[in-house]
Amino acid sequence: MKSKIRFISLIILIVPALFGCSKPGDSIVSRAMNAYSVKDYDRALELFNEALESDTRYSQAVLYSFIANVYMHQEETKLAAEYQAKAMESQPDYRGYVMLGMLYHSCGEDTAAEEAYKKAIAMNAEKGEAYASLGALYLVQEHADRAVELLEKASALEPKLAVIKANLGVAYAMLGNEKASTEALEQAEALKCENIGQFRERAKQALVGTN
Q1: What is the 3-state secondary structure (H, E, C) of 131-192?
Q2: Mean pLDDT of residues grouped by 10 in the chain (211 residues)?
Q3: How far apart are CA 41 and CA 79, in angstroms?
Q4: Rounded to whole angstroms, how far apart are CA atoms 205 and 78?
Q5: Contact at 8 Å (CB) between 119 and 97?
Q6: pTM
Q7: 162-174 vs 196-210: helix axis angle to the nearest 10?
Q8: E-strand spans in 39-142?
């Protein structure tokens, strides 16, 4: 699961902080980002934490997200989740909640993951990522009916995302709907889904279990 977490881009995160007058602590953040760019993660963490105690243009939420990002690269998902949660407490954000849900799921904290995905949906019901993530969570928990409902919503909002179609194929199979499963998996393959063979095998095993 860890390898599937999409890391937050520091470049994207800093955009809101690029405007306005320079402050004394900005140089600390710059050095932290330089350390991050050369994968000196321990030094980056030291500097980002120092920046939290300094006067910078960066909000605490952004700095917490920076720290979460570094911990993700170190595969310290519990610490990454802790700091991502702090970021969301300080400044709620749709994609931030989706990321938090992924981190919680990676830590095995699925109740917290479910809550994070639902908060993301509440913030923006017109984006498919949170529906897809929550649907995938329910799929792992073998709540196929709930998974199908969410994955269908996600697919309608994000029709070109292959992994959603692939997960739908597995979910339909778990409900014994072989025709719908086959169609969804064919759509996923047409969209160049990675590891389509694994999804087909999961669907095959699920269909066996429904017979």
Answers
A1: HHHHHHHHHHCCCHHHHHHHHHHHHHHCCCCHHHHHHHHHHHHHCCCHHHHHHHHHHHHHCC
A2: 44 45 84 94 96 92 95 95 96 95 96 98 97 97 96 97 97 97 97 96 90 67
A3: 14
A4: 32
A5: yes
A6: 0.86
A7: 20
A8: none
